[in-house]
# Entry
Amino acid sequence: MARCWVHVIAVCVLVNTLADFSECVPALHEGKKVGVHELMKAVPLSAGLDRPYAPTRPDFNPLPTKHSNAQQKQHVESHKGNLVMQEGDPDLSKSPNEEDPMEELAYLHALLASQVENARTSKENGFGLPLPLPEMKEEYTRRSFLNLVPLYLPDPVRANPECRRDLQALYRSLIALEELVKNGTLWPMQMVDSWGKFADGMLVGNLNLMGFFGECVRISVTQDDADFRGQYCYLNYGAAKNTSNVTDEWQEIRMPLVSTRLPNSLLIAYATCMPSTCTSDELADTVNEALAPAGYELKMTQCQVEHPQHALSSEEIFGIVFFSVLAAVLVAATILDVWDQYFNHQRLQTGPAKYLLVFSVSHNLEKLFHLDTTKNPGTISCIHGIRFLSICWVVLGHQYVYSVQLASNPSELFELTKPAAFQMIANGDLSVDTFFLLSGTLVCLSLMREMSRTGRFNPALYYLHRIIRLLPPIAMADAFLATVSGLLVTGPLAGIYRSFYLKGCRHSWWMDVTFISNLLFPYLEDMGKTNEGATCLPHCWYTGVDTQLYILVPLVLLPLYYRKKQGRLWLSFWTLASLVVPGAIIGAYDLWPTSMISTDTEASLQYNYKVYLTPWCRAGPYLVGLWAGYILHTAKNSPQYSKLSARQVWAGWAAATGVALAVVFGIARYNNPSPGTPQMSLTEAVLYGGLHRAAWAVAVAWIILACHWGYGGPVDWFLSHPCWQPLSRLTYCIYLSSLPIQFALQYSTVRPHYYTNLAKIQETCGVLFIVILVSIALTLVSESPILRLEKLILRPSTPKIQEETTMRPDDLPSVSTSTDTDECSENGRSETGSHGDQVPCTSDSSMREQS
# Structure
């Protein structure tokens, strides 16, 4: 399940371990033996030697290793009877018996170790270590190889013949590396150089050892004694189930681990590069043997080569055929439409071809990017800006959360959360409540307008319309993700994308299209989904909540239409209940008042399952939206309601601003994971948890009312600017496509990045650009055609009650002149890792009041 807050929790634990790590560094400098529980399970010798500008100290004694110089000498001595060792460089022509792989590999390993030892003793300076000069790159390559080979390459003795042949060629090439480099043969150096090794910034958590994917997979060797391509392998490992055989020897094994105090559920990862003739099973067997004394085992091994040749799966074939046919339909419809418009025949508009013309790209693009600059009192134009800015808040929050795992400075993230301004990110899940408010407002306006126009409620059309508006884009996005998306993701983590996210998507896409994912998330383990993603669109938990509330709206609003006084009391009752229920649940279970930045995994789970994902705890902003829609509808027929004095206007803006700031920044002193942070009392948690979401919705509702009634000033000018109109129409598809695109980009990342606020803003801008382009495509293949088909099939002859000159943002198919019930597919909701899964969603309603 895409639970971003779990990743943040992992980072929090990582920071605690790094604090202990820093306390152990002086012990190293004093020459003391540092145990793994005090420092790290595996800091390779190359942590100090593989970095080109590593500091050297006369008193620096690296941790004992399985392949220390002394042990290498001992290894050579043990084979003296079988090896021919001469002074200087050994004569490779006198190699041992080639039929005995153990003897030949021992000879090559001993020869390589001898070269490293001779280089060290001849070039060492006054500090006891060789200077990290560029001309010594060959020596560093050999030293790194000897340090890391037990965990980075399969055991040649037990490998298949082709793999053994290529590994032996690698050994020989490293021995003669200087001569090969002079001749321009770099593949031995490239292979070792691409391995994931410790680098600068270890004390700030730069322990994500991803290596260099491109450098590895671009290796291609064709020579007499070797024929292979570079194969990149990404390995995850954690605590073994059976640790009865753990011994003290594990302290001498080099492992790219982080800390023994990390939870066992947090897997540790590193990358290696090996010949393509070797198999992942051979590598896994060798690594597991090396890890076993430490009580660890591999959990996953993902290996890949560049442009692998594999047969397309049935899902991929279906996706390619389906989207090819769909593309052909779009092209055909566009050609027909352009031809019909060019010759001004208009005959196709009335014949059977009109059902094909709904897919015309040219027509739908024209409507999508139409700008209406006329002022119309019946249009709530400020919602355009609110919707798009809210979805940007969603994407920004997701970018902060889902890129945490690839940060090269995770221990600095806590410092990033300390400023009060960070609460705008930490409380990004309030964007969910903004869309709940918009949903309630627009659904109320749509329903009340339809009731006033027809005098009756048509439940079949009401619910069918919801399905027609929301389901096709979700189904189209699911179809693409479950079939062909795996072909587009490349990089070190592409294998994980396919084995985790894509696997879960293909198994559980039905949770998205049935609008019940929010109710099933707490039971994923019971459903057997322990090693795969939750769904294709995990952020559609909001679509579920919003749809479940939409189903119940008529029970709340119809009494308001038939009996206004009793209806207002009825709506007040449910509004009060929406405030009491979440507060009561928070108090009864002693839960968080909102999504918090914390290391308490269990508390985060309990809050999300009992409060965050449940419709009965998220109804507050939705009901505030129903009140806002009712007030707008009433003021249309009774203008005196919208006449406010200057004092009322100033008081309204002051109250809305104060409430919004209090909601966002009011818990800043509690919402910080640093030691010594005070804990919120149960009373405070109940009050804040029960009221803050509805309070935020009230503040945003005032902005809508004030702007629509002419009291918005510069705020109304900004939010109602025509430039927001096309972007507002794309909001629903931006919501659907943003998180999968962010997932794909994260899984395609080739190197860790430095995590800063500026970097996240820059990344968000780039992501938004890609998402908007994809959203246009998704709109053209699903939302726009379906909206036009709905009008052709369900409402072909709706009478024109009043001419409307303003195009509604949801009215993509045509510039309708009727006041029929066109609803907006809007909403972007959010929930971020430390603050939930930021997720947007949609809701149906008209952006125009009843005329």
